[in-house]
Task: structure prediction
Amino acid sequence: MKIAVVGGGISGLSIAWNLAIRNEGEIHLFEKNWITYGSSTRSGARFRVHFWAEENSRFALESIRRLEKLARRMDWNPIIHRGGYLWLLLHEQHIDRFREANKMWSKLGVQGVFLDPGMVKERYPYINADDVLEAFFGPQDGSLHHDYVCFGYYSLAKKLGVIFHELTPVHNIIIENKKVKQLKTAKGLVDVDVIVLSAGAWTNELLENIGIRLPTEPVRKEMCLTEPYHYFIDPLIIDTGSGAFVGQTLKGEILGSLDYPTTPGLIQLETKFDFVVRWARAITKRIPVLKNARIMRTWAGYYMMSSDCSHIMGRDPEWPEGLYVAYGYSGHGFMMAPLVGELLAENILTGKIPELMKPFLPTRFKENKLIQEKMVIG
Ligand SMILES: Cc1cc2nc3c(=O)[nH]c(=O)nc-3n(C[C@H](O)[C@H](O)[C@H](O)COP(=O)(O)OP(=O)(O)OC[C@H]3O[C@@H](n4cnc5c(N)ncnc54)[C@H](O)[C@@H]3O)c2cc1C
Result:
């Protein structure tokens, strides 16, 4: 069997490695630019297990477990650190929502802690908590190093014989007798038995060429990073009032973003001064000492949003045989990809659909079985 994975981000890399360890067939990964060109190394490099939908919480929990195990096998240290996430809650309805969700999280063994404003001030004296009614702290959440995880997968996959084709865009999929037959790449036609489209924000371009449409769209997001300072912000702090988040890398840089209106689509990956000003205003209001921080770098990447803010993996039986997707991660794909790779590899090689994968199939949109997820950060 010859399997082609399209896209060299965290998703494609995880899928390629998970296929390779099962030692069946020849695996090729096609990347139009270079490995990690896309959102995977433009991310905030955070992970969490706290989602509104149980399906996503459960999936993330298992995915992080996979990542931790993988850390022992990697040549690159993924630098996993559980500093927690701290949500600052400014309205009663947010508190009710978190209390309700915490029942589900308790069932999964990942309940969080509610902090009153006094406790917030005591634990995090640098936070201006004057308008905070309560806070929710999720100690199970944390950060990783996205480059090291990607290159960890890459070197493991390469050792197992995955053939990487960088600077090789895939232009089209050739179908014959309702089966995938060939990939049309910039370097020629390639015969294939299975194609996995994991091309992030660009996946729709390939799907649309063969008449498949899924409710997904890219949305540009921007990030800011300051010079490094003495480490003092351990959790990722989410200000539910302004929609801004801020954290600190282990190197000391202050990093963050905010929910900022933009036009959906594959618009230019640039950062706007207006964005920087909005974020800086929001975080200096919340952490006044940051008014002295100097911004060093900004960048942009795409969130590939699905209509229910959850990833899409697997295939629709009505599609040409041999065609699979893994995309639509909606801003939380890095943390989901370790498990996506494992489950999709099993699905491709055995035909069985693992339980944890079932809610995320592409058929859920036409069957109206949407996942009730709206917790998107940034
Ligand atoms: C600002 C920002 C912050 C984020 N923060 C987090 C976070 O803290 N935690 C988290 O879990 N997630 C986060 N995310 C989301 C996460 O980065 C993505 O969900 C994840 O990286 C998606 O991985 P991917 O492999 O699907 O896509 P990508 O990393 O975008 O990879 C897709 C690859 O496909 C290639 N490609 C495209 N078209 C073709 C083609 N025709 N032929 C060949 N190759 C092609 C591209 O060049 C690209 O390298 C963030 C995203 C952004 C933008």
In short: The chain has two domains: 2-68+146-215+308-364, 84-141+219-303.
